[in-house]
TrEMBL record:
Cofactor (UniProt): Mg(2+)
Organism: Megasphaera hexanoica
SUPFAM superfamilies: Nudix
Pfam families referenced in this protein's UniProt entry, alphabetically: NUDIX
Stored InterPro entries: NUDIX_hydrolase-like_dom_sf, NUDIX_hydrolase_CS, NUDIX_hydrolase_dom
Protein's name according to its UniProt entry: NUDIX domain-containing protein
UniProt entry tagged with the keyword Hydrolase: yes
């Protein structure tokens, strides 16, 4: 019997943060210069659950405190070093719009559903949004629905 290959697996979180009907997107400050748009988030620490991790990551990357509303979907990505990340995407709200970016991002926007459609998303995030289409649409968070619909994910009209 062949020895099973070891896969390095990590856990991650992302947050779709809403304020006044707009969604927060961050532009990645990546070494390749692609600067895809994404949601704040990152890896879990050993002593954290998903909710603790998403609150910490959002605070570190944006300076915002959030109230988690629901689980929106899942996220997965294989890094160049071979590590595979699996994660949870949450919907959340905040009462502030002033963002303090960390070194991980170079820009941010609060976008309407129409503006979200123009954001160049990382392929892994786009696939996650596509999978959300397969979920029961009626059960999706009311804040999330317009952003998925206009991004071409749900309800091609």
């Amino acid at each position: 019997m062949a020895q099973e290959e070891r896969v390095h697996m990590g856990l991650s979180v992302k947050a779709m943060i809403f304020h006044a009907g707009r969604l927060l997107v961050l532009q990645k400050n990546d070494s390749e210069g692609l600067h895809h748009w994404e949601f704040p988030g990152g890896g879990l620490r050993r002593d954290e659950d998903f909710a603790m991790a998403v609150r910490r990551e959002v605070m570190e990357e944006t300076g915002l405190s959030i109230q988690i509303l629901a689980t929106a979907g899942t996220w997965s990505y294989q890094k160049k070093d071979g590590q595979f990340l699996n994660g949870v995407i949450f919907t959340a709200v905040t009462d502030k719009e002033d963002v303090r970016l960390s070194h991980e991002h170079c820009d941010y926007r609060w976008v309407t559903p129409e503006e979200f459609r123009t954001c160049e998303l990382h392929g892994s995030l786009r696939r996650s949004l596509d999978r959300m289409q397969e979920a029961d649409y009626e059960r999706q968070d009311f804040l999330l629905q317009p952003f998925l619909r206009l991004h071409g994910v749900i309800g091609h009209e």
